[in-house]
Structure formats: C-alpha cells, structure tokens
Amino acid sequence: MRYSGLQKEVLALYRKCLRESRKKPIDTRSHFESYARAEFQKSLALDKKDFAAIEYLMRKGQRQLEMYSSPGIKDIR
Amino acid sequence: MFRTALLRSARSATCQAVRKSSPIVRPASTGLFTKSQIAPSAFQAVRCYSAGGGLDEATVTGRIADLLKNFDKITPTSHFANDLGLDSLDTVEVVMAIEEEFSIEIPDKEADAIHSGIEQICEIWSHARELTF
C-alpha cells in the first residue's frame, strides 16, 4: 500500500508524538502514548479526500504536540 | 594503605629502571612489548570497550521476534495490514517499538515502506551493518 503525501504527513506527526512521549517520565509514558493514539483514532473515519478537515486537524495536532512536549508537563489523562 | 604505597613506589622504580636500561639492551622496536610484559599494571587501565563485531542476522531476527510477541498475533512473516488487520497507526507503533529496541532511528521515508516483519528485519539488518562497519 502506498500512502499519499498527506497521509505520510499524518503518520509523521504520529511518529513525532510517540518520539516526544519517549522523553516523558517512564511511568506516565503510556498515558501520553494512549492519548495520542486516542486523538488520532477520533478522526480515523474521516474521508481521505477531505483535505481541509485533515489539514485543520494536523495544525491542531501540531499545536497540541508543541504544548505537551514542554518538559514541565509530566502526566496526562 | 602503606603497603600499596610501598608496592607502587617499588613498581615505578622497576619501571624506570627498565625504561632506562631498555634503549641500551633491547632494540627500540620491541621496547613497548617487553615493557608491558614486565610492568603490566601500568597498562591495565587502558581497555577497549568496543564490541568485537556487529549484530549478526540471527540476533536481529531473534530480538525482533521477541519484540513482536508483545503485540498480539504477530509473526515475523505476516504482513501488517493484509494478514493482521493493523491500521497505519499500528504499523507506526510497531516500527517505533523496533526503533527503540535497537536504539536506531529509521527515517520516515523508509519507515513508511515497512509493511511486514521480514521487511523490517532486512531494514534493521542493513542499518546494523551501516552502524557497525
């Protein structure tokens, strides 16, 4: 299966999220991972041609990633 | 304490004696070897910590198989999406887990191309070779 450019970007964002959650304390890491997973899963049903929505969600996700990747944040629910 | 100090001074004295005498008695090329045989304590601090060889393929395969056991129903030959019904996010997770196991970073372009355990093993194997040789 080949991914489109936008799909690749989404996967790259997910990968970035997982990489960031590796930097979190070891006992709360799984919280961050499952949170990222849940956030992506919410929009899994989105039509892959719905570019505007996907791009909006990507930007939103990036902002969230920046926010949560600050070292002051140690746990997430 | 006192005894070790005594020993050390005695040892350094012999070292110096050897060093002084060696240019006269022995040819210069063998000087290092003979010195290390006589006073090995001076050289014990120097150790080489690098591993002998790289990862061999069996090790890589074994470690990946162990890792994939943690995920449900994955075998090394199964195709992630077709056989196992993993979605693209699951695939990313598996690839990331393997990256962590081997402490490497697979570039996004190659990671997107990984769809089965076997491909992954090949991928790790090529990386391992790049890293160690």
Automatic annotation (TrEMBL), chain A:
Complex 1 LYR protein domain ranges (all copies): 8-67
Cellular component annotations (GO), alphabetically ordered: mitochondrial matrix
InterPro entries given in the database record: Complex1_LYR_dom, Complex1_LYR_SDHAF1_LYRM8
The keyword Iron-sulfur appears for this protein: no
Subcellular localization, as worded in the UniProt entry: Mitochondrion matrix
Protein's UniProt keywords contain Cytoplasm: no
GO BP: mitochondrial respiratory chain complex II assembly
Parts forming coiled coils: none
Highest taxon above the source species: Eukaryota
Subcellular location, principal: mitochondrion
Keywords associated with the record: Chaperone, Mitochondrion
Similarity annotation: Belongs to the complex I LYR family. SDHAF1 subfamily.
Protein name: Complex 1 LYR protein domain-containing protein
Organism: Hymenoscyphus albidus
UniProtKB/TrEMBL annotation, chain B:
GO cellular component, one term: mitochondrial [2Fe-2S] assembly complex
Species name: Hymenoscyphus albidus
Gene Ontology molecular function, alphabetical: acyl binding; acyl carrier activity
Gene3D superfamilies: ACP-like
Entry-linked SUPFAM superfamilies: ACP-like
InterPro entries found in the cross-reference section: ACP, ACP-like_sf, PP-bd_ACP, Ppantetheine_attach_site
Function text: Carrier of the growing fatty acid chain in fatty acid biosynthesis.
Compartments it resides in: Mitochondrion
Superkingdom as given in the UniProt entry: Eukaryota
Alphabetically ordered keywords of this record: Electron transport, Fatty acid biosynthesis, Fatty acid metabolism, Lipid biosynthesis, Lipid metabolism, Mitochondrion, Phosphopantetheine, Phosphoprotein, Transit peptide, Transport
Domain Carrier: 51-132
Main location: mitochondrion
Pathway named in the protein's UniProt entry: Lipid metabolism; fatty acid biosynthesis
PANTHER family to which the protein is assigned, alphabetical: ACYL CARRIER PROTEIN (PTHR20863), ACYL CARRIER PROTEIN, MITOCHONDRIAL (PTHR20863:SF28)
Protein name: Acyl carrier protein
Family listed: Belongs to the acyl carrier protein (ACP) family.
Keyword Lipid biosynthesis carried by entry: yes
